[in-house]
Design a protein that fits this description.
Radius of gyration: 26 Å
Strand order of the largest sheet: 1-2-3-6
Number of strands: 8
Distance between the termini: 49 Å
Number of helices: 6
Strand content: 15-25%
Helix content: 40-55%
Structural class: alpha+beta
Length: 249
Amino acid sequence: MKHDGELHTLTGAYALHALTPAEDEAFTAHLVDCPSCRQEVAEFSATAARLAGAAAVPPPARLKEAVLRDIDSVRQLPPLLHGTVKPTTFTAVLRRKAVPLALAASLAAAAVLGGVTVLQHQRTDEARQQAQASERRLQDLTVVLAAPDARTVHGRTASGATTSVVTSKVQNKAVFIGAGLPDPGPGRTYQLWFDDHGAMRPAGLLTHDGATLMQGDLQGASGVGLTVEPAGGSPQPTTRPLLLQSLPA
């Protein structure tokens, strides 16, 4: 169970429904007496909704027709019957007789549990560090996406992927959101650019769909570009841009 001080760090995970049942129950009770956490949860929830809206892709026009056409061919699951008495089988007898043997095996396995416990503790620490890093990234995105002056422009790459760029002049930052980006290929990566009125400035790398806080200041940029570059990125674009998106004036 988390201590009260640690509960304050769960706002992002709570908004994304990523807590365990015990943590969710404890944090829900914590929200009653913590206005700051309630505010953060509201901001994270709004950010998640905005990300989902920006990255949403409309379903194919034929999807409804296909579902209605094939629904009659889907076999219904049989009813779940409670209280059904299962006949005693030879396997069941063996299972009952195997209990003493299993207890003996458990005692032998106890010697291994110390090492397993250490490994689980290490994995728990790694998972906690990953969760904290994800929380920081979500906070960075929220600062831009929830800014009062946030503005969004939409675009489409040459490969057909949909994109959105959210900017905040007050925060001097931009967030790039991509959906439907194909695999850039082995040894390749997508690279973002700020277009400073014709001069391309590196703004970070990405390898998959999602939201990314662009690196560098928004000030001076008139647009955003996206190219495919060698792994690790390039100081200047080496391929034809997949996207050149103008930013709000």
